[in-house]
Amino acid sequence: MTKSRFLLGLIGVFLFCLVVSPALAASSEEAQVAIGTAESRMSTAYESVLEAERAGANVSSLLLRLNNGSALLSKAQMQYRIGNFSEAVDFANQCFDSLNGIENEANELRDSAVIERKQRMLISAVGSTFAIGAVFYAGFFGWRFFKDKYCKRVLKMKPEVQADDLG
Fold first, then answer.
1. d(CA 79, CA 95)
2. Of 10, 41, 42, 113, which is least packed with CB atoms within 10 Å of its CB?
């Protein structure tokens, strides 16, 4: 009786595993959808980081996160190719989660870089205006100083009359 119970229990566990394992396993379509969603998120994140970099922002931390996400996406695609769909879905979801918030951070960095660039441009314009004014006034007052000094020196000179050698 014990052997038959054991055998019946073993058959029950085997049937349970056969029923539960396909239910928990991901299908090819689910893996494709998960990978496609992760690729879409990766693309938008990359574009956001690229815009921030073009604006002059320091995006090194975002590039590290993009690198991690691309490694996870690559693993998901590799698992999909070998037919391990549940692992492919898992890696695709990890990729998707690793890229959360990267677009917002990139947009904030881009906006702050644009503001900083405008401030630097304003400071440069104001500084250049003052520098041009200072050079103009220094040149004008320097010219007046040397002109007055030259006129006084010329006026202090006594003209010498020279005899005309012609006659």
1. 14
2. 10
